[in-house]
Amino acid sequence: MIAQRGNRELWLALLAMLLISLLYGFVTVVWRRIPPASDFFGHMIGVLGFALMLMTETLYSLRKRTRSARWGRMSDWLSFHIFTGIVGPYMVLLHTSWRFNGLAGAVTLMTVIIVVSGFIGRFIYTSIPRSADGFEMESEAVEREIAAIQSTLQSLENPQMSRINKLRKQQNTLRRQAASLATARRMLALWHTVHIPIGMALFVAAFVHIFAALYYATFLH
Fold this sequence. Notes:
The chain is mainly α. The chain is 77% helix and 0% strand.
């Protein structure tokens, strides 16, 4: 059965960002200033955000490369990947105290690019038919799914019109995806050639920024 993706992870990410924003606003009101990146709150929100970004960069990729593993469905891992890929950069953005000079500014810019690129990748990803486990379906598998739905439709009676309509909608979706499958895969391959190098550059710059911050703020004292 083909997997139907919703927007649950986007709504959860929006909720998390709202709660984080309320906490950030509360701290700003209590301190009567924007929390500096060098203070405890600024440090913690940056560390947690960067940890989420590391999880975004590594966990989904590891799960995708171990198809024989049973560590949850790929679709669930993708949802987690999208959630951390939105919330993590947002926390890092708050960590900057809205100052974008030097290396920190470059890291922030690349973070924004990666997030935008991630949204584009999600759009391309949803245009490729996938199984319930989240793995890509080949054209032959899509055609078999269409044929199975057609057979089920023909066997149903009128009282089951709601199920018939649902199956027809799913069938039409499969037909559209089958027609654009090759194009979608080419677009996904092109997206990977852009998204992955920028992501690697982002994390190299972020690690340099973290080391410099620790060196000048801690080791020199």
